[in-house]
Amino acid sequence: MQDINQATIVFDVQGIWVLNLALAAVMFGVALGITVTDFKKLFRTPNLLFAGFLSQFVLLPLVTFLLVSMLKPEPGIALGMFMVAACPGGNVSNFMTHLAKGNAALSVSLTAFATVLALFFTPFNFEFYGSLYPPTAPMLKAISIAPQALFEVVLLILGIPLMLGMLVRHYYKATALRLSRIFKPVSILVFLSIIVLAFARNTSVFSQFIHAVLFIGIAHNFVALALGYMVAKLFTSAKENIKTLTLETGIQNSGLGLLLIFTFFNGLGGMALLAAFWGIWHILSGLTLAFWWSKNGKA
């Protein structure tokens, strides 16, 4: 049987470019609904701002490292877990928060804030914990990724679309609101289609190794959601804010993780499998949680 650490997910150059554009389009669509005032409001509630930062960029990577150290998965899968945990919250969390009757304005603002922080913290957390865990440290040294290169990709896919979207919203508000109603759902649909296509083109690899990431991926996502919930309970008693912070932590931008994996690791099997599985599973878990919250109103 092929070693999962040697397996490679096939994704051609054109597919990577489409994934690039889809991720940028999703971020642009989110940014069309963001104003400078949203950031000002966020800074007027520093407890929620700090809670979002703490859960996403400090505790989730740390807890992921502890989980990896306990479960001891294959090195490629461990790197995939570090990559997912290092990414900012996923854009689809805004839709889930709205469905859950959470604080949608807070969700969008936290997504934008996390995107800005991700320019630094995504490369830093991935490099730090990947190098700290002995089985994955040699793999990072072999690839020799410059943090600057990671920064440039994150800036291109998240930072620039965020700035452009906010500029359009500022100068052409009516147009931005019309575009947002179309742009965001269509771009998310395209992005999900790309992940499904990647699965379809690599069915043999997925069928051979899916058992290796199934439990770990579900456990990792559960831990992320539970972490977000516990941190939120420490900082706020408002149900809508607890829902928002939980989903912002548990719904990671696995699409960005996949892009970085295909760009810098040539689709390394364990990494890509974990990130792709997370990309599908967190939508199922997030929608289930959001639907349950929307029905009973508790948090």
Q: How would you explain this protein's 3D organization?
A:
- The protein has helices spanning 13-31, 36-43, 46-71, 75-86, 93-99, 104-132, 137-143, 147-171, 173-201, 203-235, 239-250, 254-264, 269-296.
- The chain is mainly alpha-helical and 299 residues long.
- The protein starts with 12 loop residues before the first helix and ends with a helix.
- It contains 13 helices and no strands.
Explain briefly what this protein structure is:
This protein has 299 residues and is mostly helical. 82% of the residues lie in helices and 0% in strands.
Mean pLDDT, all residues? 81
The whole-angstrom Rg is: 18 Å
Number of strands: 0
- Number of discrete helical segments: 13
Q: Strand pairing plus helix content: what structural class?
A: mainly alpha
How many angstroms does the end-to-end distance come to?
45 Å
How much of the sequence is in beta strands? Answer: under 5%
Q: In which range does the helix fraction lie? A: over 70%
The ordered H/E elements are: HHHHHHHHHHHHH
Described by the principal axes of the CA atoms, the overall outline is globular
Q: Could you name the ranges where pLDDT drops below 50 across 5 or more consecutive residues?
A: none
Largest sheet: none
What is the topological layout?
Elements: H1 13-31, H2 36-43, H3 46-71, H4 75-86, H5 93-99, H6 104-132, H7 137-143, H8 147-171, H9 173-201, H10 203-235, H11 239-250, H12 254-264, H13 269-296
Task: List the main descriptive attributes of the protein structure presented here.
13 helices, 82% helix, 0% strand, mainly alpha, 299 residues, globular
